[in-house]
Amino acid sequence: MTTHPHQGRIDAQLAFLIEADKLKSVMRGTSLHDNSRREYTGEHSWHIALYAMVMAEHANRPVNVDRVIKMLLIHDLVEIDAGDVPIHSAAARDAATQEAEEQAAATRIFGLLPPDQASSFRALWDEFEAAETDDAVFAKSLDRVQPVVSNLEAGGASWIDYNVTLDQLESRVGAKVKRGAPAIWDALHTRISAWFATR
Amino acid sequence: MTTHPHQGRIDAQLAFLIEADKLKSVMRGTSLHDNSRREYTGEHSWHIALYAMVMAEHANRPVNVDRVIKMLLIHDLVEIDAGDVPIHSAAARDAATQEAEEQAAATRIFGLLPPDQASSFRALWDEFEAAETDDAVFAKSLDRVQPVVSNLEAGGASWIDYNVTLDQLESRVGAKVKRGAPAIWDALHTRISAWFATR
To answer: Is A116 contained in some domain?
Structure first.
Protein backbone atom coordinates (compact mmCIF):
# COMPACT_ATOMS: atom_id res chain seq x y z
CA MET A 1 0.00 0.00 0.00
CA THR A 2 1.26 3.46 -0.87
CA THR A 3 0.81 6.47 1.34
CA HIS A 4 -0.94 9.41 -0.25
CA PRO A 5 1.40 12.43 -0.58
CA HIS A 6 -1.00 14.64 1.42
CA GLN A 7 -1.66 12.02 4.12
CA GLY A 8 0.22 13.75 6.94
CA ARG A 9 -1.27 17.13 6.22
CA ILE A 10 -4.82 15.79 5.93
CA ASP A 11 -4.34 13.77 9.13
CA ALA A 12 -3.46 16.98 11.00
CA GLN A 13 -6.45 18.80 9.49
CA LEU A 14 -8.74 15.92 10.44
CA ALA A 15 -7.36 15.92 13.99
CA PHE A 16 -8.43 19.56 14.27
CA LEU A 17 -11.86 18.93 12.71
CA ILE A 18 -12.40 15.90 14.98
CA GLU A 19 -11.48 17.98 18.04
CA ALA A 20 -13.90 20.67 16.86
CA ASP A 21 -16.78 18.20 17.14
CA LYS A 22 -16.60 18.66 20.92
CA LEU A 23 -18.00 22.19 20.54
CA LYS A 24 -21.36 20.48 19.89
CA SER A 25 -21.34 19.40 23.55
CA VAL A 26 -20.53 22.78 25.13
CA MET A 27 -23.80 24.17 26.49
CA ARG A 28 -24.51 27.90 26.56
CA GLY A 29 -26.71 29.99 28.83
CA THR A 30 -29.00 30.88 25.93
CA SER A 31 -32.04 28.82 24.95
CA LEU A 32 -33.38 27.88 21.55
CA HIS A 33 -36.11 30.26 20.41
CA ASP A 34 -38.83 27.73 21.25
CA ASN A 35 -37.34 27.33 24.75
CA SER A 36 -37.19 23.53 24.25
CA ARG A 37 -33.57 23.31 25.44
CA ARG A 38 -30.43 25.40 25.82
CA GLU A 39 -28.24 25.76 22.77
CA TYR A 40 -24.79 24.32 22.14
CA THR A 41 -21.86 26.46 21.06
CA GLY A 42 -21.46 24.70 17.71
CA GLU A 43 -24.94 25.60 16.54
CA HIS A 44 -24.58 29.12 17.98
CA SER A 45 -21.47 29.52 15.80
CA TRP A 46 -23.46 28.47 12.74
CA HIS A 47 -26.29 30.84 13.56
CA ILE A 48 -24.12 33.93 13.93
CA ALA A 49 -22.17 33.11 10.76
CA LEU A 50 -25.58 33.19 9.07
CA TYR A 51 -26.29 36.51 10.82
CA ALA A 52 -23.10 37.87 9.22
CA MET A 53 -24.14 36.63 5.80
CA VAL A 54 -27.53 38.37 6.13
CA MET A 55 -26.67 41.49 8.16
CA ALA A 56 -23.26 42.64 6.86
CA GLU A 57 -24.80 45.71 5.23
CA HIS A 58 -25.63 47.06 8.70
CA ALA A 59 -22.05 47.15 9.92
CA ASN A 60 -21.14 50.56 11.28
CA ARG A 61 -18.05 50.63 9.06
CA PRO A 62 -17.39 48.63 5.86
CA VAL A 63 -16.42 45.03 6.60
CA ASN A 64 -15.15 42.04 4.66
CA VAL A 65 -18.04 39.66 5.27
CA ASP A 66 -16.00 36.62 4.25
CA ARG A 67 -13.45 37.34 6.99
CA VAL A 68 -16.21 38.03 9.50
CA ILE A 69 -17.83 34.66 8.73
CA LYS A 70 -14.54 32.79 9.17
CA MET A 71 -13.87 34.64 12.42
CA LEU A 72 -17.29 33.61 13.75
CA LEU A 73 -16.85 29.98 12.68
CA ILE A 74 -13.75 29.67 14.89
CA HIS A 75 -14.36 32.30 17.58
CA ASP A 76 -15.65 29.92 20.26
CA LEU A 77 -13.47 26.83 19.66
CA VAL A 78 -11.55 27.70 22.82
CA GLU A 79 -14.70 26.83 24.80
CA ILE A 80 -13.85 23.16 24.24
CA ASP A 81 -11.31 23.62 27.03
CA ALA A 82 -12.43 26.85 28.73
CA GLY A 83 -16.23 26.42 28.66
CA ASP A 84 -18.89 29.01 28.02
CA VAL A 85 -19.28 31.81 30.55
CA PRO A 86 -22.71 33.45 30.18
CA ILE A 87 -22.30 37.22 30.05
CA HIS A 88 -24.84 37.85 32.82
CA SER A 89 -23.50 35.19 35.22
CA ALA A 90 -21.36 35.91 38.27
CA ALA A 91 -18.53 33.89 36.69
CA ALA A 92 -18.29 36.48 33.93
CA ARG A 93 -16.64 38.89 36.37
CA ASP A 94 -13.36 36.93 36.64
CA ALA A 95 -12.12 37.98 33.23
CA ALA A 96 -8.39 37.44 33.80
CA THR A 97 -8.70 33.74 34.64
CA GLN A 98 -11.08 33.22 31.75
CA GLU A 99 -8.69 34.92 29.34
CA ALA A 100 -5.72 32.83 30.47
CA GLU A 101 -7.71 29.62 29.97
CA GLU A 102 -8.82 30.72 26.52
CA GLN A 103 -5.28 31.63 25.47
CA ALA A 104 -4.03 28.18 26.49
CA ALA A 105 -6.96 26.57 24.69
CA ALA A 106 -6.20 28.50 21.50
CA THR A 107 -2.60 27.32 21.60
CA ARG A 108 -3.62 23.70 22.02
CA ILE A 109 -6.56 23.57 19.59
CA PHE A 110 -5.24 25.66 16.68
CA GLY A 111 -1.91 23.87 17.23
CA LEU A 112 -3.50 20.67 15.94
CA LEU A 113 -3.54 22.16 12.41
CA PRO A 114 -0.56 22.14 10.02
CA PRO A 115 1.74 25.03 11.04
CA ASP A 116 0.68 27.49 8.30
CA GLN A 117 -3.00 27.06 9.16
CA ALA A 118 -2.31 27.06 12.90
CA SER A 119 -0.78 30.51 12.45
CA SER A 120 -3.49 31.96 10.24
CA PHE A 121 -6.38 30.60 12.33
CA ARG A 122 -4.75 31.83 15.54
CA ALA A 123 -4.20 35.28 14.02
CA LEU A 124 -7.86 35.49 13.04
CA TRP A 125 -8.94 34.43 16.56
CA ASP A 126 -6.53 36.95 18.14
CA GLU A 127 -8.04 39.65 15.92
CA PHE A 128 -11.55 38.72 17.07
CA GLU A 129 -10.52 38.76 20.72
CA ALA A 130 -8.79 42.15 20.41
CA ALA A 131 -11.98 43.70 18.96
CA GLU A 132 -10.09 46.53 17.30
CA THR A 133 -10.46 46.00 13.54
CA ASP A 134 -13.75 46.80 11.81
CA ASP A 135 -14.28 43.11 10.98
CA ALA A 136 -13.75 42.06 14.61
CA VAL A 137 -15.95 44.82 16.05
CA PHE A 138 -18.80 43.79 13.76
CA ALA A 139 -18.27 40.09 14.51
CA LYS A 140 -18.49 40.83 18.24
CA SER A 141 -21.72 42.74 17.67
CA LEU A 142 -23.33 39.71 16.04
CA ASP A 143 -22.05 37.41 18.79
CA ARG A 144 -23.82 39.68 21.31
CA VAL A 145 -27.04 40.33 19.45
CA GLN A 146 -28.05 36.75 18.63
CA PRO A 147 -28.76 35.85 22.30
CA VAL A 148 -30.88 39.01 22.57
CA VAL A 149 -33.07 37.83 19.70
CA SER A 150 -33.19 34.34 21.25
CA ASN A 151 -34.31 35.74 24.60
CA LEU A 152 -36.97 37.91 22.99
CA GLU A 153 -38.31 34.89 21.09
CA ALA A 154 -38.08 32.59 24.11
CA GLY A 155 -39.98 34.94 26.43
CA GLY A 156 -37.02 36.14 28.46
CA ALA A 157 -35.09 32.90 29.08
CA SER A 158 -31.59 33.76 30.37
CA TRP A 159 -32.67 37.33 31.31
CA ILE A 160 -35.04 35.69 33.80
CA ASP A 161 -32.45 33.08 34.91
CA TYR A 162 -29.91 35.80 35.70
CA ASN A 163 -32.42 38.47 36.78
CA VAL A 164 -31.10 40.97 34.23
CA THR A 165 -32.26 44.60 34.22
CA LEU A 166 -32.62 46.82 31.17
CA ASP A 167 -29.70 48.92 32.40
CA GLN A 168 -27.49 45.84 32.67
CA LEU A 169 -28.51 44.70 29.19
CA GLU A 170 -27.73 48.13 27.76
CA SER A 171 -24.29 48.32 29.40
CA ARG A 172 -23.15 44.69 29.00
CA VAL A 173 -24.68 43.94 25.61
CA GLY A 174 -26.19 47.00 23.94
CA ALA A 175 -22.99 49.02 24.08
CA LYS A 176 -21.10 46.24 22.25
CA VAL A 177 -23.81 45.68 19.66
CA LYS A 178 -24.03 49.42 18.98
CA ARG A 179 -20.29 49.69 18.50
CA GLY A 180 -20.44 47.50 15.38
CA ALA A 181 -24.08 47.42 14.34
CA PRO A 182 -26.11 50.32 15.78
CA ALA A 183 -28.92 49.91 13.24
CA ILE A 184 -29.62 46.38 14.46
CA TRP A 185 -29.81 47.50 18.10
CA ASP A 186 -32.11 50.37 17.10
CA ALA A 187 -34.36 47.98 15.22
CA LEU A 188 -34.66 45.72 18.29
CA HIS A 189 -35.15 48.51 20.79
CA THR A 190 -38.95 48.61 20.74
CA ARG A 191 -39.19 44.88 21.46
CA ILE A 192 -36.50 45.02 24.17
CA SER A 193 -38.15 47.95 25.95
CA ALA A 194 -41.55 46.28 25.77
CA TRP A 195 -40.23 43.06 27.35
CA PHE A 196 -38.47 44.81 30.23
CA ALA A 197 -41.50 47.04 30.82
CA THR A 198 -43.45 43.92 31.83
CA ARG A 199 -40.93 42.92 34.54
CA MET B 1 -41.07 57.60 18.56
CA THR B 2 -39.50 57.57 15.11
CA THR B 3 -39.12 54.45 13.03
CA HIS B 4 -35.59 53.62 11.98
CA PRO B 5 -35.13 53.92 8.19
CA HIS B 6 -33.90 50.30 7.96
CA GLN B 7 -36.62 48.91 10.25
CA GLY B 8 -38.60 47.06 7.58
CA ARG B 9 -35.53 45.53 5.99
CA ILE B 10 -34.04 44.45 9.31
CA ASP B 11 -37.40 43.01 10.38
CA ALA B 12 -37.44 40.81 7.27
CA GLN B 13 -33.84 39.73 7.87
CA LEU B 14 -34.63 38.92 11.50
CA ALA B 15 -37.70 36.91 10.44
CA PHE B 16 -35.38 34.75 8.33
CA LEU B 17 -32.77 34.41 11.08
CA ILE B 18 -35.47 33.55 13.63
CA GLU B 19 -36.89 30.90 11.30
CA ALA B 20 -33.36 29.51 10.85
CA ASP B 21 -33.20 28.76 14.58
CA LYS B 22 -35.48 25.78 13.92
CA LEU B 23 -32.62 24.01 12.14
CA LYS B 24 -31.18 23.42 15.63
CA SER B 25 -34.10 21.05 16.27
CA VAL B 26 -33.82 18.96 13.08
CA MET B 27 -32.12 15.69 14.05
CA ARG B 28 -29.83 13.85 11.65
CA GLY B 29 -28.97 10.16 11.35
CA THR B 30 -25.35 10.86 12.28
CA SER B 31 -24.06 10.84 15.86
CA LEU B 32 -21.61 13.11 17.59
CA HIS B 33 -18.10 11.66 17.58
CA ASP B 34 -18.39 10.59 21.21
CA ASN B 35 -21.69 8.82 20.41
CA SER B 36 -23.42 10.73 23.23
CA ARG B 37 -26.34 11.79 21.03
CA ARG B 38 -27.31 12.32 17.39
CA GLU B 39 -26.41 15.65 15.87
CA TYR B 40 -28.70 18.46 14.78
CA THR B 41 -28.56 19.97 11.32
CA GLY B 42 -27.54 23.44 12.57
CA GLU B 43 -24.36 22.18 14.19
CA HIS B 44 -23.68 19.91 11.18
CA SER B 45 -23.83 23.03 8.99
CA TRP B 46 -21.27 24.75 11.22
CA HIS B 47 -18.98 21.74 11.18
CA ILE B 48 -18.85 21.41 7.40
CA ALA B 49 -18.34 25.15 6.94
CA LEU B 50 -15.28 24.65 9.16
CA TYR B 51 -14.30 21.67 6.98
CA ALA B 52 -14.37 24.02 3.97
CA MET B 53 -12.22 26.58 5.75
CA VAL B 54 -9.62 23.91 6.57
CA MET B 55 -9.80 21.61 3.54
CA ALA B 56 -10.30 23.92 0.54
CA GLU B 57 -6.79 23.20 -0.74
CA HIS B 58 -7.84 19.59 -1.41
CA ALA B 59 -10.61 20.48 -3.85
CA ASN B 60 -10.23 18.60 -7.11
CA ARG B 61 -10.52 21.87 -9.03
CA PRO B 62 -9.89 25.42 -7.76
CA VAL B 63 -12.77 26.73 -5.67
CA ASN B 64 -13.80 30.03 -4.09
CA VAL B 65 -13.76 28.97 -0.44
CA ASP B 66 -15.84 31.97 0.62
CA ARG B 67 -18.67 30.93 -1.71
CA VAL B 68 -18.36 27.31 -0.58
CA ILE B 69 -18.70 28.36 3.07
CA LYS B 70 -21.80 30.44 2.37
CA MET B 71 -23.30 27.59 0.36
CA LEU B 72 -22.76 25.20 3.27
CA LEU B 73 -24.20 27.64 5.83
CA ILE B 74 -27.54 27.66 3.96
CA HIS B 75 -27.56 24.28 2.20
CA ASP B 76 -29.77 22.47 4.73
CA LEU B 77 -32.22 25.24 5.73
CA VAL B 78 -34.89 23.47 3.66
CA GLU B 79 -34.81 20.66 6.25
CA ILE B 80 -36.84 22.94 8.55
CA ASP B 81 -39.83 21.92 6.42
CA ALA B 82 -38.62 18.81 4.59
CA GLY B 83 -36.64 17.08 7.36
CA ASP B 84 -33.38 15.20 7.12
CA VAL B 85 -33.34 11.98 5.10
CA PRO B 86 -30.32 9.87 6.07
CA ILE B 87 -28.53 8.73 2.93
CA HIS B 88 -28.55 5.07 3.93
CA SER B 89 -32.21 4.95 4.99
CA ALA B 90 -35.02 3.44 2.92
CA ALA B 91 -36.65 6.89 2.71
CA ALA B 92 -33.66 8.13 0.72
CA ARG B 93 -34.92 6.18 -2.31
CA ASP B 94 -37.96 8.42 -2.93
CA ALA B 95 -35.93 11.26 -4.36
CA ALA B 96 -38.69 12.97 -6.38
CA THR B 97 -40.97 13.58 -3.38
CA GLN B 98 -38.03 14.76 -1.31
CA GLU B 99 -36.96 17.19 -4.03
CA ALA B 100 -40.46 18.66 -4.39
CA GLU B 101 -40.67 19.25 -0.64
CA GLU B 102 -37.26 20.89 -0.60
CA GLN B 103 -38.12 23.19 -3.50
CA ALA B 104 -41.27 24.37 -1.71
CA ALA B 105 -39.28 24.85 1.49
CA ALA B 106 -36.67 26.95 -0.31
CA THR B 107 -39.39 29.18 -1.75
CA ARG B 108 -40.94 29.72 1.68
CA ILE B 109 -37.78 30.11 3.79
CA PHE B 110 -35.59 32.22 1.49
CA GLY B 111 -38.74 34.21 0.69
CA LEU B 112 -38.67 35.60 4.23
CA LEU B 113 -35.62 37.70 3.28
CA PRO B 114 -35.78 41.08 1.51
CA PRO B 115 -36.25 40.38 -2.24
CA ASP B 116 -32.63 41.00 -3.29
CA GLN B 117 -31.30 38.59 -0.66
CA ALA B 118 -34.10 36.10 -1.28
CA SER B 119 -32.88 35.91 -4.90
CA SER B 120 -29.19 35.64 -4.14
CA PHE B 121 -29.59 33.07 -1.35
CA ARG B 122 -31.93 30.99 -3.49
CA ALA B 123 -29.49 31.12 -6.42
CA LEU B 124 -26.69 29.89 -4.16
CA TRP B 125 -28.87 27.05 -2.85
CA ASP B 126 -29.95 26.11 -6.40
CA GLU B 127 -26.28 26.00 -7.39
CA PHE B 128 -25.51 23.68 -4.48
CA GLU B 129 -28.41 21.38 -5.36
CA ALA B 130 -27.45 21.22 -9.04
CA ALA B 131 -23.91 20.09 -8.10
CA GLU B 132 -22.44 21.26 -11.40
CA THR B 133 -20.10 24.14 -10.57
CA ASP B 134 -16.72 23.45 -8.99
CA ASP B 135 -17.80 25.23 -5.80
CA ALA B 136 -20.95 23.13 -5.50
CA VAL B 137 -19.21 19.84 -6.27
CA PHE B 138 -16.65 20.51 -3.55
CA ALA B 139 -19.35 21.64 -1.09
CA LYS B 140 -21.23 18.38 -1.71
CA SER B 141 -18.05 16.40 -1.06
CA LEU B 142 -17.66 17.99 2.37
CA ASP B 143 -21.34 17.42 3.18
CA ARG B 144 -20.79 13.72 2.44
CA VAL B 145 -17.43 13.21 4.11
CA GLN B 146 -18.18 14.69 7.53
CA PRO B 147 -20.60 11.87 8.48
CA VAL B 148 -17.93 9.34 7.43
CA VAL B 149 -15.45 10.87 9.88
CA SER B 150 -18.18 10.96 12.55
CA ASN B 151 -18.98 7.28 12.03
CA LEU B 152 -15.31 6.30 12.15
CA GLU B 153 -14.89 8.22 15.42
CA ALA B 154 -18.15 6.90 16.89
CA GLY B 155 -17.34 3.25 16.18
CA GLY B 156 -19.71 2.77 13.26
CA ALA B 157 -22.88 4.53 14.47
CA SER B 158 -25.24 5.03 11.50
CA TRP B 159 -23.39 2.39 9.43
CA ILE B 160 -24.49 -0.12 12.08
CA ASP B 161 -28.01 1.37 12.36
CA TYR B 162 -28.57 1.02 8.61
CA ASN B 163 -26.46 -2.13 8.12
CA VAL B 164 -24.29 -0.45 5.48
CA THR B 165 -21.75 -2.44 3.45
CA LEU B 166 -18.44 -1.13 2.14
CA ASP B 167 -19.79 -1.36 -1.42
CA GLN B 168 -22.82 0.74 -0.48
CA LEU B 169 -20.60 3.32 1.22
CA GLU B 170 -18.35 3.51 -1.84
CA SER B 171 -21.25 3.96 -4.28
CA ARG B 172 -23.51 6.26 -2.21
CA VAL B 173 -20.86 8.34 -0.48
CA GLY B 174 -17.34 7.67 -1.77
CA ALA B 175 -18.21 8.44 -5.39
CA LYS B 176 -19.53 11.88 -4.38
CA VAL B 177 -16.63 12.68 -2.08
CA LYS B 178 -14.13 11.66 -4.76
CA ARG B 179 -15.82 13.85 -7.36
CA GLY B 180 -14.86 17.00 -5.43
CA ALA B 181 -12.17 15.96 -2.96
CA PRO B 182 -10.45 12.69 -3.96
CA ALA B 183 -7.44 13.34 -1.72
CA ILE B 184 -9.65 13.38 1.37
CA TRP B 185 -11.29 10.07 0.45
CA ASP B 186 -7.86 8.55 -0.22
CA ALA B 187 -6.62 9.74 3.15
CA LEU B 188 -9.59 8.09 4.92
CA HIS B 189 -9.45 4.86 2.98
CA THR B 190 -7.22 2.90 5.33
CA ARG B 191 -9.48 3.66 8.31
CA ILE B 192 -12.66 2.92 6.35
CA SER B 193 -11.36 -0.41 5.07
CA ALA B 194 -10.20 -1.40 8.55
CA TRP B 195 -13.60 -0.68 10.08
CA PHE B 196 -15.55 -2.67 7.48
CA ALA B 197 -13.04 -5.54 7.69
CA THR B 198 -14.21 -6.13 11.26
CA ARG B 199 -17.90 -6.51 10.28
So the answer is: yes
